[in-house]
Amino acid sequence: MRGVSATSREAVLDVVERSTGEPGQLGDELFSVASALDATPSVRRMLTDPATEPDARSGMAAAVFGDKIAPATLAVLDVAARGRWASSRDLTDTIEAAGVAAHVAAASAAGTLDSLEDELFEAGRLIRHEADLRGVLGDRTISADRKAPLIESIFGGKVTDATLALLKQAAAARTGAFESVLHRFADEVAARRDRVLAEVRSAYELGDDERRRLAQALAARYGRDVQLNVVVDPSIVGGLRVVVGDEVIDGSVATRLEDVRRRLVG
């Protein structure tokens, strides 16, 4: 997100950071607002119409949502409605991001931020390995309301409230496939903690010293602390494959052998 939308997004997230409302409720209500705006393009367009004065857009947001959400949520929506947006979708994407930030704040207040990061990663792994579950959660013809009870039945009571909320929101798949949205949420959680997320594939389980040295090397490369999510994958034979955002650092033996094979065939 760039330009005027990026500036407005930062203003919205800043309100979430300073909010005195109950953060879990704030996150849930912001997710509901994003869903409502997705379902009513006409309202979304009116709230982002640059020809309409900010006060008028704010009043419209209060008229539509004021009696349905808490004052803290309305305060976030007020800033969003007064902002300038390059597209109406940028507004709803930002409202969703604000919901993620609120749930991060809830986890921080509860002392469960580490659990939130670990649980999102482990939930993603489980879903990737369960083809039927992955198929249902990735099916965009199935509504989020129908997916939520399924997620509740699998993860309810086993993960923190913040994790459960983000899993349900990822299942809504507003901006892409479930797995990609869940990965983006994990990245946003890490970013709110001023660190980056790295998925590491290794042929064997890394020891504490190996993890420490790898985290230090990646921190030096990216200039921020790094959260390692390690996946044991015997197919890479040896070495490591590290994914940080869109960057892939592939030092696996399997990849090197494949490169050699291609050169020989060529």
UniProtKB/TrEMBL annotation:
<dbReference type="GO" id="GO:0046933">
    <property type="term" value="F:proton-transporting ATP synthase activity, rotational mechanism"/>
</dbReference>
<keyword id="KW-0813">Transport</keyword>
<keyword id="KW-0472">Membrane</keyword>
<protein>
    <recommendedName>
        <fullName>ATP synthase subunit delta</fullName>
    </recommendedName>
</protein>
<dbReference type="InterPro" id="IPR026015">
    <property type="entry name" value="ATP_synth_OSCP/delta_N_sf"/>
</dbReference>
<comment type="function">
    <text>This protein is part of the stalk that links CF(0) to CF(1). It either transmits conformational changes from CF(0) to CF(1) or is implicated in proton conduction.</text>
</comment>
<keyword id="KW-0139">CF(1)</keyword>
<dbReference type="GO" id="GO:0005886">
    <property type="term" value="C:plasma membrane"/>
</dbReference>
<comment type="similarity">
    <text>Belongs to the ATPase delta chain family.</text>
</comment>
<comment type="function">
    <text>F(1)F(0) ATP synthase produces ATP from ADP in the presence of a proton or sodium gradient. F-type ATPases consist of two structural domains, F(1) containing the extramembraneous catalytic core and F(0) containing the membrane proton channel, linked together by a central stalk and a peripheral stalk. During catalysis, ATP synthesis in the catalytic domain of F(1) is coupled via a rotary mechanism of the central stalk subunits to proton translocation.</text>
</comment>
<dbReference type="GO" id="GO:0045259">
    <property type="term" value="C:proton-transporting ATP synthase complex"/>
</dbReference>
<dbReference type="InterPro" id="IPR000711">
    <property type="entry name" value="ATPase_OSCP/dsu"/>
</dbReference>
<keyword id="KW-0375">Hydrogen ion transport</keyword>
<dbReference type="Pfam" id="PF00213">
    <property type="entry name" value="OSCP"/>
</dbReference>
<keyword id="KW-0406">Ion transport</keyword>
<keyword id="KW-1003">Cell membrane</keyword>
<keyword id="KW-0066">ATP synthesis</keyword>
